[in-house]
Amino acid sequence: MSPKLVLYSGRQNNVRIRVFGIDPLRIESHRATFPELDLARSFSDRIRSCENEISTHRELPKDLANDLKQAGLFRLLLPSTLGGSQLSLPKYLRCIEAIGEADGSVGWCVGQAGVFANGADGYPPELTNIIWGDNPAAVVATGTPVNCKATEMGDIFQLTGRWRFASGCMHADWLAAQTDLVLEDGTEAPGLCLVPKDSVELGDDWNVTGLRGTGSREYRTEALAVPKAQVVPVEVFRSHCGAATGLSNGLLFASSFGSVGLGIARRAIDSLIDLAQGKVRAFGNRKLMEDEMVQVGLAQAEAEWHSARAFLLEIADECAYLHKQESAPSGAARTRLRLAATNAMRTSGKVVDKAYELAGSSAIFHDHPLYKCFQDIHAITQQIQARPAHFRTVGRALIGLESEEDVR
Q: Which of 198, 203, 307, 356 gives a 20 to 30 Å CA spacing to 131?
């Protein structure tokens, strides 16, 4: 007679592990922990306890955000010379995943701030000192520019414009405003103005169901005087490869969001397992856990999650190895990282959809974790870093064709 299939529960490094199998398996039994990951996991219960407040107020609670700052979780990629952890890419992604599993909005905000800090060593020393010199815990948020212009006027640039989707702006200290720079000689160039958060007008347009707690509002300025020391070419933000990873921000945003997605999907699977223990479908007499289709769907979701996660961490390991050996990951490695990150986001969406479907009507209520997972993951899959067009870009590179978009 075959051994009975049972459900094991346990905790490893303060993370609940549930796996179907003959023996208890551990998701990360072969990967060593490290202080920043232990720290990220130590916040899990507290973050979960704030979920209603995060969703209701559409931002991170001020005391939680401040404690995350002081603990160093917003500066995981900040160079060590500026007081940051300067983590390798695989370690960074594991931290973001752990926080994203506790709450997607918190994981998103920590990831956003971490990516901006990645490129700090590419900014002029005077600017890095202004932002992080007296406050290594400083958080910088960005935003998508709309009709923005900064006109050179002597020792300043006069900045006017509007920026949308400024994730984390509610707890940020600084805002990085992408804009067109109009120089005194009449020429124009794309630039980035770093301005204190309290110098802008914040809107209240973040009326969404997914990732509500990111507080991704818009902000505006009208003829704001920005000292030249706080203005840099936008390519410094877009293309500089930071000391921690040797990668530019575009790929780091994608990888970070992929890890948030994996964290959300992990929670969705575990929430379905919890639900299946006690739920009996309407007009039925069997628990959800005894439903063959639930068993099949759960196993498929588990396999898809592990596959996407393993792929992302494998390529992250490769990029970290190349960064250590050659100072920067190769073009081929960057292409694979783009693929793995896109796949992580899209696959996480499919996993959450499967868990949501199998849960039945229980998942449609606001107070059920699967409802939140469903809303949060679909905010991620709608984001530009998750667009299916990235598969085309990678496919062209793999087949040997030139691509209209450089994988950076």
A: 203
DSSP state of 142: -
CATH of the domain at 259: 1.20.140.10
140-176 residue pLDDT tens: 999 999 999 999 999 999 999 999 999 999 999 999 9
User: 192 and 223 share a domain?
Assistant: yes
**What is the C-alpha separation between 317 and 311, in angstroms, rounded?**
10
Closest listed residue to residue 257, CA positions, set 384, 117, 102: 384
* Residue 126 sits in the same domain as residue 198: no
Domain-located, residue 196: yes
Write down the pLDDT at residue 80. Answer: 93
Structure token digits, residue 270: 């575990």
Q: CA-to-CA distance for 288 and 63, rounded, in angstroms?
A: 39
**Confidence class of residue 238 from pLDDT cuts 50, 70 and 90?**
confident
**At 6, is the pLDDT very low, low, confident or very high (cuts 50, 70, 90)?**
very low
Residue-by-residue DSSP string for 174-212: EEEEEEEEE-TTS-EEEEEEEEEGGGSEE------SSSG
The answer to whether position 27 is within a domain reads no
Q: Record the tokens describing residue 85, joined without a space.
A: 């952890």
How many domains would you assign to the chain? 3
Buried residues in 217-236 as b, exposed as e (16+ CB within 10 A)? bbbebeebebeeebbbebeb
Q: Indicate which CATH number applies to the domain containing 154.
A: 2.40.110.10
- Phi and psi at 134, nearest 5°, equal -90, -10
Same domain, 221 and 363: no
- What is the token pair recorded at 121? 């060593």
Per-residue pLDDT reduced to its tens digit, 329-366: 989 999 999 999 999 999 999 999 999 999 999 989 99
